[in-house]
Amino acid sequence: MPTINSPANDYSPLAGTYDELLDASGNMHPQWGKLVEGFAQMGAQTVNSRWVNAQRLIQDNGVTYNVYGDPHGMERPWALDPVPLVIAHDEWAKLEKALIQRAFVLNHVLTNLHGSRSLITSNVLPADMVYANPHFLRPCTAIRQRKDQHLVLYGVDIARNPAGQWWVVDDRTQAPSGAGYALENRVVMSRTFPNLFRQCGVQRLAMFFSKLRETLAHLAPQGRDNPRIVLLTPGPYNETYFEHAYLARYLGFTLAEGGDLAVRNNKVYLKTLSGLQRVDVILRRLDDEYCDPLELRNDSQLGVAGLVQAAAAGEVTIANALGSGVIETPAFMPFFRSLCRKITGEEALLPSVATWWCGHQQARTYVLEHLHELVIKSAFDGPHKTPPIFGQSLTKPQIDELKAKILANPHHYIGQESVTLSTVPTWQGDCLVPRHLLLRVYVAATEDGYTVMPGGLSRISSAQDSKIISMQKGGGSKDAWVLSDGPVNMFSLLPTDVSNVKLARQTQDLPSRVADTMFWLGRYVERAESLVRLCRSIIQRMIDQVMEESCPELPRLFTLLGRKTFATPENGPIQSPLEEYDRVIGYLQMVLFERELDFGLLSMAHHIRRLGSVVRDRISLDTWRILSQIDRRLSQAAVTPLDMTEQLELLDELLVPFTAFAGFSHESMTQGQGWRFLMMGRRVERALFTATLLDELVVPQEEHELPMLDAALEIASSNMTYRSRYQTTVAALPVLDLLLIDETNPQSVGFQLNELSRHIDTLPREILDGQRTSEQKHILKLLSELRLADVQQLSQRDSLGRRSELSDLLNRLVSELLELNDQLTQRYLVHAQPLQSLSVTSLNPQSLGMEAV
Amino acid sequence: MQYRLTHITEYHYGVAATVSHSAVHMLPREVSNQTWQNFDLIITPTPDVFQKHVDFFGNSAAFAAVQQPHKQLIIKLVGTVDVQPRQPLLQNMSRPWEQVRDKLITDLTNDGLDAYQYCFDSPLAPGLQMLQAYTLKSFTPGRPILDAAKDLSERIHVDFKFDPTSTTILTTVQKVFEQRSGVCQDFAHLMIACLRSLDLPARYVSGYLRTYPPPGKPRLIGADASHAWAAVYCPDNGWVDFDPTNSQIVNNDHITLAWGRDFEDVSPVKGVVLGGGNHQIRVSVDVEPLNTSTLAPVVGQNMSQSQSQSQPSTQSQLPSQSQSQNVN
Known about the structure:
The complex is a heterodimer. Helices cover 43% and strands 13% of the residues of chain A. Chain A contains 26 helices and 22 strands. In chain A, the strands form five sheets. In chain A, strands 3, 4, 5, 17, 18, 19, 20 and 21 form an eight-stranded mixed beta sheet that branches. In chain A, helix 2 packs across helix 10, helix 13 (512-545) packs antiparallel against helix 14 (554-565) and helix 19 (673-697) runs antiparallel to helix 26. The two termini of chain A are 35 Å apart. Residues 1-5, 69-73, 496-507 and 839-853 of chain A have low confidence and may be disordered. Chain B has helices at 97-106, 110-116, 132-136, 145-159, 173-179, 184-197, 263-266, 321-325; strands at residues 2-27, 34-44, 49-54, 60-66, 70-83, 161-162, 181-182, 202-209, 226-234, 238-243, 248-249, 254-260, 269-275, 279-289. In chain B, a hairpin with a 5-residue loop joins strand 3 and strand 4. In chain B, strands 1, 2, 3, 4, 5, 13 and 14 form a seven-stranded antiparallel beta sheet that branches. A five-stranded antiparallel beta sheet of chain B has the order 11-10-9-8-12. Chain B has two domains: 2-83 and 267-289, Immunoglobulin-like (Sandwich), CATH 2.60.40.2250; 91-260, C8orf32 fold (Roll), CATH 3.10.620. Chain B starts with a strand and ends with a helix. Chain B is α+β, with helices and mostly antiparallel strands. The chains are: A alpha+beta, B alpha+beta. Chain A binds chain B through residues 120-123, 127-128, 131-132, 134, 138-139, 141-142, 262-266, 293-295, 298, 305-306, 309, 312-313, 408-409, 411, 833, 835-843, and chain B through 11, 18-19, 21, 23, 48-49, 51, 53, 55-57, 63, 65, 67, 105, 108, 110, 113, 116-117, 119-121, 123, 129, 169-170, 264-265, 267, 269-276, 279, 281, 317-322.
């Protein structure tokens, strides 16, 4: 029993519900003992301070959950509660047995429905449940799933009724979500409370995932060794995209979007930089209907044309099997008991929540008579599409209206017993409060049966009285601790040190889409960094200028800023910055923080974060943290207007993560093809920036050339190099040599071109009789032109005082670089031309295949 | 009656398509009153993958994939078919429609189970409640199901205007019902939806219809069209076809290709293409009677409504197969 200062002392459960911590007489269920004691010893203050760190870990790890219909902060940080759900060993053993039985039955039903359908002809499963079910996908009946293993990863929502009995509330049979979040919850909890975690003897999750991986590998067609397994995701706009990337990395699978895959000769291939690579097994996170625009929903932009046919030909195994959604419907629930009896000869070990499908006369009559006490749901839609209706909260006319709706379309409705969910203690700063609990548990197929993940994703209601538990609606989550009765198996799949996570595992696996993202990530980061440097130079001058003489270069710097951001100051160019202090502040504020400005710094930071999130499975955690930090810091700063000193401080501060990113990309990324594309993006962008810088500061006619050259050196971070090399006053000739030609200066155009040339030479290409590719020729031409340039001549001014030869060269460089950029994109990155459906125009382009946690 | 049938679907791409996948429902299925002398499905360029299979509904279907760059894809069905007159319909001899509805719920025979699946909503032909009142005017209590279905088919023919400009494949049954016009596909879907609104089994039949040139005019080659109609199930009679577009009981002017719950299940050609840019679809159908000694249509019977279109299309609005191929 808790003694000193136990937070459980003041905890009072709700009347009429089962509480996970305390029994009806207020005594603690014994499995909670060690945990409560541990929390009591730590005290509220320690728990809170550790939890602040945990929250930061969650944020830094980018654990997010996308909320639909929230245009701005679409990504919401994952909500996790510090108090885990504790489940005793014996109780879990019973649950395990029951869930394995359920998985076995469900798999049998799926195999039967996509095979002989004898369950229908023998009237064990009513024909109308299948025929009226829009998720019974007839094309998928052509697929003979390898080893009859339709259900490979099964998710099941269970809850406890007031008597303490567990019930099945929902089955997730096609692409269950949340296992990755459960894993991440565990990582956060075990790092935040390591002692507590150890003392409690919590069972580990790693073995489960290891078995899942093994099973998937065994399911490869023709039993091929060392199969390539991909995780098929709907993409970054899906609510659980974080998890897809996380799981892919954890399991060592390639994360692929539909556009990354192609069917040729009934086989599935991954489109990579080095061509098409055979895919053997697909772990999908895409709903059935969206998987193949040819045979399933033809408005799907997320699927792979010909996938059903490839699966039917036995050339690829998809987990879970296509068509598994047919039993992921509430209408299926009432039939489980008799199916279980028929298939296993045993009674169901775990009851399902009482459900009546209105497609059948008797059930319909019952539902219509008990509408006021039931929950009415769509028989076949998820809660996303049709939210449940609680009968008890309806008025008489509403009841009548609902009755009419049910009678008009009885097959589309079910009535379900209204479940009072158990409560679980939840941390509220200094005390525990009861919140309703729904536990999602995962079951994975093994060689000879099923195995249950010891733990799961506990989800809790956002408020005490809330009946709906949904991450979409702002609920939270908890780790679930299943206690061990013996020594804990310490098996782990996690890399011991996360900072060592490398960019690309196998270069030939790099999907073209990933290379494209890396390339643009490189360009955006470089562009943002150069913007920061430019703004910093401007602000420093503005601040100094107040005391000293005027800076003739300032108006030029403003023009340069305008050229890079495509944003001009209101009311025309800034001619005399000193007298227009307010306009300068306003302009800078816009360039730095205006959300709507496409090429402003804040937009750049958003892009960087977005691109980073797309390649989450390819970059290290630390790299990701840096990228999201840039965005977070800028977004925070954008809230209140800053004065110039504050702006300067912010910019100084921001240079740190940029430098860190550059360091990481050199020091801790595998120098594979992904890295190359990142670097090429940077090189292209920096060459463009330096060329524009010279064009703005060195080309025009100018009386006071010195401050211009100084500024150019400073913005290109080359003044140190210059001083150490020339130790003389600044002059145009050496500045041009250093910033344009000198290939040893990492800021010069020449350096960028040379590096680009090196990278391009290593890219995969078809053999062209020893000839160079067009990109190779292009970069060689550019590089030669620069190498052959006469700096002396370039530094000459024409009769109007302009350096027109330099100007011509710079303009040529810029347009040729952009062309090279397009060539690279053409050859390597636009593998994914848009798929066109030639049969029916899109019915609903916004719809995405997804599933709610 | 013998016909030579030619059905050509051509895709012309603005830029070469890298890969195209097609699902084809143009291989005629076995039907008791039809004998195919020979038929051939010719695809150019020769597909790299061509696979025939039997679909869930028992239709012959095929997949074709062309995996080298191509600027056009032509899918051509040619064949000669002999269509025998069907059994005369004794519609009054069929059972009351309520009995058919109730029998299917417990009928576990293969035919019964197969028919049962056609009682339920499908995407393009849902049994909307709004159709019930209209349907019940034909389906009076105790009326023999085939008699009632024939009446419904005739009423649709009278109440709805044939107008190829009024609908596309995206037009819903609800819209067709409200605007009272459409083409054969719409009328077939409407009739099916009406029957399903009473929980009766109804399916969509895809095929062709012999057309008669106006008196004194020669038959225009290639001016025919794909056609569609509805069929209703009665346990004693099996499936009986009705053509609400032409108010005919289907006889030997109709050539059956395939059937399913609605157009979506048996669309003659569905395709997904990688690249291709702007594209145009052209469709031509020719139903040539080979032994023309057969009697001309009865005077006073309506001319079969049929129209073939070949419309150029633009990229901004992707044309659907049926917009261009306007199934009548």
